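Tutorial handout. Part one gives the primary structure; part two gives the three-dimensional structure as C-alpha coordinates.
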Amino acid sequence: MLIATFLVPARALAAVDTPDWDGTGIIVDSRDQTDAGNFEPLAPSTEPGETTQYEYRFACTDGDSLVFSACTELMLECSSGASSPEGKPGTAIYWYYADTAFDPLIWTFHSGPVCIYDEQPRDLLAEIAGQIATEFQRTPVVAAEFGSQPGPHTLRGKETNVWATASTQTFNLTMLGQNVTITATPVAYTWNYGDGTIWGPTPIHGAPLHQDRIGEQTQTSHIYTETGRLTISVTTHFDGTYTVNGGPELSIPGQGNIPSPAQPLTVWRAETHLYADDCIVNPNGIGC
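Part two.
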Protein backbone atom coordinates (compact mmCIF):
# COMPACT_ATOMS: atom_id res chain seq x y z
CA MET A 1 0.00 0.00 0.00
CA LEU A 2 1.32 3.44 -0.91
CA ILE A 3 1.32 5.90 1.96
CA ALA A 4 2.41 9.45 2.65
CA THR A 5 3.52 10.37 6.15
CA PHE A 6 3.48 13.84 7.73
CA LEU A 7 5.00 14.75 11.09
CA VAL A 8 3.38 17.63 12.96
CA PRO A 9 5.97 20.44 13.38
CA ALA A 10 6.73 21.69 16.88
CA ARG A 11 5.37 25.10 17.87
CA ALA A 12 7.88 27.51 19.34
CA LEU A 13 7.62 31.11 20.46
CA ALA A 14 10.23 33.51 19.16
CA ALA A 15 10.97 36.81 20.87
CA VAL A 16 11.32 39.27 18.01
CA ASP A 17 10.81 42.99 17.69
CA THR A 18 10.41 43.33 13.92
CA PRO A 19 7.23 43.40 11.84
CA ASP A 20 8.48 40.48 9.72
CA TRP A 21 7.20 36.95 9.90
CA ASP A 22 9.36 34.41 11.66
CA GLY A 23 9.56 31.74 8.91
CA THR A 24 11.79 28.92 10.02
CA GLY A 25 11.36 26.90 6.84
CA ILE A 26 10.68 23.18 6.68
CA ILE A 27 12.97 20.17 6.74
CA VAL A 28 12.47 17.87 3.76
CA ASP A 29 13.37 14.19 4.01
CA SER A 30 13.82 12.41 0.65
CA ARG A 31 13.15 8.69 0.40
CA ASP A 32 14.71 5.87 -1.65
CA GLN A 33 13.21 3.83 -4.47
CA THR A 34 11.12 0.87 -3.26
CA ASP A 35 11.34 -2.74 -4.44
CA ALA A 36 8.22 -2.18 -6.53
CA GLY A 37 9.98 0.55 -8.46
CA ASN A 38 8.07 3.41 -6.87
CA PHE A 39 9.61 6.34 -5.07
CA GLU A 40 8.50 7.31 -1.61
CA PRO A 41 7.43 10.98 -1.55
CA LEU A 42 9.19 14.01 -0.23
CA ALA A 43 7.49 14.49 3.13
CA PRO A 44 7.95 17.13 5.83
CA SER A 45 9.73 16.07 8.99
CA THR A 46 10.34 17.79 12.33
CA GLU A 47 12.70 17.95 15.26
CA PRO A 48 13.36 14.77 17.26
CA GLY A 49 10.80 14.18 19.97
CA GLU A 50 7.64 14.74 17.94
CA THR A 51 5.07 12.07 18.72
CA THR A 52 2.24 12.48 16.21
CA GLN A 53 2.44 11.68 12.53
CA TYR A 54 -0.12 11.33 9.74
CA GLU A 55 -0.40 9.16 6.68
CA TYR A 56 -3.00 8.76 3.98
CA ARG A 57 -4.18 5.69 2.17
CA PHE A 58 -6.04 5.32 -1.09
CA ALA A 59 -9.75 5.20 -0.34
CA CYS A 60 -13.02 3.93 -1.78
CA THR A 61 -11.55 0.76 -3.35
CA ASP A 62 -12.19 -2.96 -2.87
CA GLY A 63 -15.77 -2.56 -1.71
CA ASP A 64 -15.20 0.43 0.60
CA SER A 65 -18.56 1.79 -0.55
CA LEU A 66 -20.20 -0.92 1.53
CA VAL A 67 -18.44 0.38 4.66
CA PHE A 68 -18.22 4.10 3.94
CA SER A 69 -21.43 5.29 2.33
CA ALA A 70 -19.69 8.61 1.64
CA CYS A 71 -17.62 6.83 -1.00
CA THR A 72 -20.56 6.52 -3.37
CA GLU A 73 -21.19 10.26 -3.51
CA LEU A 74 -17.51 11.24 -3.21
CA MET A 75 -16.33 9.06 -6.09
CA LEU A 76 -18.84 10.60 -8.47
CA GLU A 77 -17.68 14.07 -7.48
CA CYS A 78 -13.99 13.14 -7.33
CA SER A 79 -13.83 11.30 -10.67
CA SER A 80 -15.68 14.10 -12.44
CA GLY A 81 -13.51 16.84 -10.99
CA ALA A 82 -16.63 18.82 -10.03
CA SER A 83 -15.01 20.27 -6.88
CA SER A 84 -11.55 20.73 -8.35
CA PRO A 85 -10.51 24.38 -8.84
CA GLU A 86 -9.06 23.28 -12.18
CA GLY A 87 -11.85 20.86 -13.12
CA LYS A 88 -9.67 17.73 -13.27
CA PRO A 89 -10.44 14.32 -11.71
CA GLY A 90 -8.84 13.34 -8.44
CA THR A 91 -7.98 10.48 -6.08
CA ALA A 92 -9.89 9.56 -2.91
CA ILE A 93 -7.87 9.08 0.29
CA TYR A 94 -8.35 8.37 4.01
CA TRP A 95 -6.26 10.10 6.69
CA TYR A 96 -4.73 8.05 9.53
CA TYR A 97 -2.59 9.07 12.53
CA ALA A 98 -0.24 7.30 14.95
CA ASP A 99 1.80 8.02 18.08
CA THR A 100 5.48 7.43 17.37
CA ALA A 101 6.03 6.55 21.04
CA PHE A 102 4.72 3.07 20.18
CA ASP A 103 6.72 0.52 18.19
CA PRO A 104 5.29 -0.82 15.98
CA LEU A 105 3.08 2.15 15.11
CA ILE A 106 -0.63 1.77 15.71
CA TRP A 107 -2.50 3.57 12.96
CA THR A 108 -5.96 4.98 13.73
CA PHE A 109 -8.50 6.31 11.27
CA HIS A 110 -8.68 10.12 11.44
CA SER A 111 -10.99 11.36 8.68
CA GLY A 112 -12.09 10.91 5.10
CA PRO A 113 -12.72 10.00 2.47
CA VAL A 114 -11.57 13.23 0.83
CA CYS A 115 -10.50 13.90 -2.74
CA ILE A 116 -6.99 14.96 -3.81
CA TYR A 117 -6.90 16.37 -7.33
CA ASP A 118 -3.65 15.12 -8.75
CA GLU A 119 -2.36 12.02 -10.50
CA GLN A 120 0.28 11.57 -7.79
CA PRO A 121 -1.33 12.74 -4.52
CA ARG A 122 1.72 11.84 -2.43
CA ASP A 123 3.96 14.25 -4.30
CA LEU A 124 1.31 16.95 -4.41
CA LEU A 125 0.71 16.93 -0.63
CA ALA A 126 4.45 17.10 -0.04
CA GLU A 127 4.71 20.11 -2.38
CA ILE A 128 1.95 21.90 -0.47
CA ALA A 129 3.72 21.14 2.82
CA GLY A 130 6.89 22.64 1.42
CA GLN A 131 5.15 25.85 0.29
CA ILE A 132 2.70 26.38 3.14
CA ALA A 133 5.10 28.43 5.32
CA THR A 134 5.49 30.95 2.49
CA GLU A 135 1.73 31.13 1.99
CA PHE A 136 1.28 31.69 5.72
CA GLN A 137 3.71 34.59 5.47
CA ARG A 138 1.55 36.18 2.78
CA THR A 139 -1.72 35.73 4.64
CA PRO A 140 -3.22 39.12 5.65
CA VAL A 141 -3.63 38.38 9.36
CA VAL A 142 -5.26 41.29 11.21
CA ALA A 143 -3.23 42.71 14.11
CA ALA A 144 -4.59 42.88 17.65
CA GLU A 145 -6.44 45.92 18.91
CA PHE A 146 -5.00 47.30 22.15
CA GLY A 147 -5.37 50.18 24.58
CA SER A 148 -4.13 51.68 27.83
CA GLN A 149 -5.69 52.98 31.04
CA PRO A 150 -5.19 55.80 31.71
CA GLY A 151 -4.53 56.92 28.17
CA PRO A 152 -3.38 58.77 26.20
CA HIS A 153 -2.15 60.44 29.41
CA THR A 154 -0.90 58.71 32.56
CA LEU A 155 0.97 59.59 35.76
CA ARG A 156 4.53 58.88 36.76
CA GLY A 157 4.78 56.34 39.58
CA LYS A 158 1.25 54.99 39.01
CA GLU A 159 0.05 51.75 37.41
CA THR A 160 -0.81 52.02 33.71
CA ASN A 161 -2.89 49.07 32.49
CA VAL A 162 -2.59 47.79 28.90
CA TRP A 163 -4.52 45.06 27.08
CA ALA A 164 -4.82 43.51 23.63
CA THR A 165 -7.64 41.76 21.77
CA ALA A 166 -6.75 39.38 18.91
CA SER A 167 -8.90 36.81 17.15
CA THR A 168 -8.45 33.47 15.40
CA GLN A 169 -8.66 34.01 11.64
CA THR A 170 -9.34 31.60 8.77
CA PHE A 171 -8.30 32.01 5.12
CA ASN A 172 -9.33 29.88 2.14
CA LEU A 173 -7.03 29.64 -0.87
CA THR A 174 -6.11 27.37 -3.77
CA MET A 175 -2.68 25.72 -3.85
CA LEU A 176 -1.64 23.44 -6.71
CA GLY A 177 -5.29 22.96 -7.61
CA GLN A 178 -6.33 21.97 -4.07
CA ASN A 179 -8.66 23.72 -1.61
CA VAL A 180 -6.46 24.77 1.33
CA THR A 181 -7.66 26.40 4.54
CA ILE A 182 -5.16 28.27 6.74
CA THR A 183 -6.04 29.11 10.35
CA ALA A 184 -4.03 31.71 12.32
CA THR A 185 -4.45 31.50 16.11
CA PRO A 186 -3.07 34.12 18.54
CA VAL A 187 -0.96 32.39 21.19
CA ALA A 188 1.33 35.04 22.71
CA TYR A 189 2.07 38.77 22.96
CA THR A 190 5.20 40.89 23.29
CA TRP A 191 4.63 44.24 25.00
CA ASN A 192 6.78 47.32 24.38
CA TYR A 193 6.00 49.96 27.01
CA GLY A 194 7.97 52.64 25.21
CA ASP A 195 10.46 53.39 27.97
CA GLY A 196 12.84 50.56 27.11
CA THR A 197 10.81 47.92 28.92
CA ILE A 198 9.79 44.91 26.81
CA TRP A 199 7.84 41.96 28.19
CA GLY A 200 7.15 38.76 26.32
CA PRO A 201 6.39 36.66 24.49
CA THR A 202 3.69 35.87 27.04
CA PRO A 203 0.23 34.30 26.68
CA ILE A 204 -1.17 37.11 28.86
CA HIS A 205 -3.11 39.65 26.78
CA GLY A 206 -4.69 41.59 29.65
CA ALA A 207 -8.15 43.16 29.87
CA PRO A 208 -9.63 46.64 30.34
CA LEU A 209 -10.56 47.72 33.87
CA HIS A 210 -13.79 49.28 35.06
CA GLN A 211 -13.50 53.04 35.45
CA ASP A 212 -13.60 52.72 39.25
CA ARG A 213 -10.54 50.42 39.21
CA ILE A 214 -8.19 52.35 36.93
CA GLY A 215 -4.83 52.65 38.68
CA GLU A 216 -4.87 49.13 40.11
CA GLN A 217 -2.03 46.73 39.38
CA THR A 218 -2.75 44.09 36.72
CA GLN A 219 -0.72 41.34 35.02
CA THR A 220 0.04 43.66 32.11
CA SER A 221 0.30 47.02 33.92
CA HIS A 222 3.50 49.07 34.08
CA ILE A 223 4.84 51.89 36.27
CA TYR A 224 6.70 54.73 34.50
CA THR A 225 9.49 56.37 36.47
CA GLU A 226 10.14 59.29 34.09
CA THR A 227 7.87 61.87 32.51
CA GLY A 228 7.75 62.46 28.78
CA ARG A 229 6.08 61.59 25.49
CA LEU A 230 6.51 58.03 24.23
CA THR A 231 4.73 55.31 22.23
CA ILE A 232 3.51 51.91 23.37
CA SER A 233 3.01 48.89 21.13
CA VAL A 234 2.30 45.15 21.11
CA THR A 235 3.26 42.33 18.72
CA THR A 236 0.93 39.35 18.54
CA HIS A 237 2.41 35.92 17.79
CA PHE A 238 0.18 33.63 15.71
CA ASP A 239 0.49 29.87 15.28
CA GLY A 240 -0.70 28.53 11.93
CA THR A 241 -2.42 25.31 10.87
CA TYR A 242 -3.74 24.16 7.50
CA THR A 243 -5.99 21.54 5.94
CA VAL A 244 -6.04 20.20 2.38
CA ASN A 245 -9.47 19.42 0.93
CA GLY A 246 -10.94 18.97 4.41
CA GLY A 247 -8.19 16.63 5.65
CA PRO A 248 -6.56 16.67 9.11
CA GLU A 249 -5.32 19.93 10.60
CA LEU A 250 -1.53 20.14 10.22
CA SER A 251 0.85 22.62 11.84
CA ILE A 252 2.68 25.28 9.83
CA PRO A 253 6.35 25.72 10.77
CA GLY A 254 7.35 29.07 12.22
CA GLN A 255 5.13 31.83 13.60
CA GLY A 256 3.51 34.97 12.32
CA ASN A 257 4.50 38.03 14.36
CA ILE A 258 2.03 40.82 13.66
CA PRO A 259 2.68 44.28 15.21
CA SER A 260 -0.22 46.56 16.06
CA PRO A 261 0.08 50.27 15.22
CA ALA A 262 1.86 52.08 18.07
CA GLN A 263 -0.12 54.44 20.29
CA PRO A 264 1.10 57.71 21.85
CA LEU A 265 1.28 58.01 25.62
CA THR A 266 2.27 61.05 27.68
CA VAL A 267 3.59 60.52 31.21
CA TRP A 268 2.93 63.44 33.58
CA ARG A 269 3.93 64.10 37.16
CA ALA A 270 1.48 65.00 39.90
CA GLU A 271 2.28 67.74 42.47
CA THR A 272 0.54 68.37 45.80
CA HIS A 273 0.48 71.84 47.41
CA LEU A 274 -0.92 72.94 50.76
CA TYR A 275 -2.70 76.30 51.08
CA ALA A 276 -3.87 78.14 54.18
CA ASP A 277 -6.87 79.90 52.62
CA ASP A 278 -10.37 78.74 53.45
CA CYS A 279 -12.05 78.64 50.02
CA ILE A 280 -15.49 79.06 51.63
CA VAL A 281 -14.42 82.24 53.36
CA ASN A 282 -12.18 83.44 50.49
CA PRO A 283 -13.22 81.84 47.19
CA ASN A 284 -10.53 83.83 45.37
CA GLY A 285 -7.72 82.56 47.56
CA ILE A 286 -4.68 80.70 46.20
CA GLY A 287 -5.57 77.11 45.41
CA CYS A 288 -9.35 77.82 45.33
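Part three, for discussion. The first helix runs from residue 64 to 67. The chain has three helices and 16 strands.
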